[in-house]
Amino acid sequence: MTGDVEAVRSAVITWFADHARALPWRDAATTPWGVLVSEIMLQQTPAARVEAPWRDWMLRWPTPRDLAEAPMDEVLRAWGRLGYPRRALRLREAAATIVDLHGGVVPDDESALLALPGVGAYTAAAVRAFAFGRRSLVLDVNVRRVLARVADGVEHPARHETAAERRAAMAWVPDGDAEAAAWSAAAMELGATVCTARSPECRACPVAGQCAWLAAGRPAWQGPARVAQPWEGTDRQCRGRIMGALRGSREPVPLAEFAWSDEDQLARCVASLVSDGLAVATPAGLSLPR
């Protein structure tokens, strides 16, 4: 490792010790199960939206066995407006797998974590780092952005992660477990709160002096246009509207009660929710699975 890399890592870890947000899943008393729940909830969802549902979830289902035995409709109601509700299905399936194959204890082995429903490479690495303090490659969009700017001098990482990027990012991970876990948490926090996508606060950055992008004058992104996903009128909005109505009713909801102007789109979204296992069609209307 070069001195610059070691200096950057040290500065970011030191900064994190003083500036880390007091997120509930970072509490020392949080169990590996609590960390896994947080990581599933945080997929494509900001931390501010996750805090309250995570607290409620952990009070209600503090262990994998508790969730594995919970009715599916109650799980989906508790998921609320977090979005992408298939994550709730996968999390309940993961809980059942943990009970069946691991005695109700979240495994720390990477291959065992990857075998859990809804757990991919990032989530497995994050659980190993943040629940067990193990060395792993925690490479989310925030860490990718920090490394793209500091090391590569570009405003954004490529749209899709590559093997070469993973190899380069792994070179930044310290060899020791504790130091590696600290780097992963710190680099992620820096990207989430300071080195943000749209309005980076370079004056508050602990490694501004070593940042290749800042040294180059913060050149604008030259890659493919980064277009925000639309929401209004999309299938995602329609599906969300349907799920909201189902969560709010203990009885089947007649299709005529779903307020959506495009009947073909409504029918398509209803069919997709049924296919995904998020809704059940009955003669009286649509309901949550039990």
UniProtKB/TrEMBL annotation:
Keywords, comma-separated and alphabetical:
4Fe-4S, DNA damage, DNA repair, Glycosidase, Hydrolase, Iron, Iron-sulfur, Metal-binding
Keyword Chaperone part of the UniProt annotation: no
One of its GO biological process terms is: base-excision repair
**Residue span, HhH-GPD domain:** 41-193
Record's CDD domains?
ENDO3c (cd00056)
Any one GO MF term held by the record is: adenine/guanine mispair binding
Specify the superkingdom: Bacteria
What does the record give as EC number? Answer: 3.2.2.31
Its cofactor is: [4Fe-4S] cluster
Which regions span the lipid bilayer?
none
Q: Which residue stretches, if any, does this entry annotate as coiled coil? A: none
The reaction(s) catalysed by this protein are:
Hydrolyzes free adenine bases from 7,8-dihydro-8-oxoguanine:adenine mismatched double-stranded DNA, leaving an apurinic site
Which SUPFAM superfamilies does UniProt cross-reference here? DNA-glycosylase
Q: What family does the database annotate?
A: Belongs to the Nth/MutY family.
What is this protein identified as? Answer: Adenine DNA glycosylase
Gene source species: Tessaracoccus aquimaris
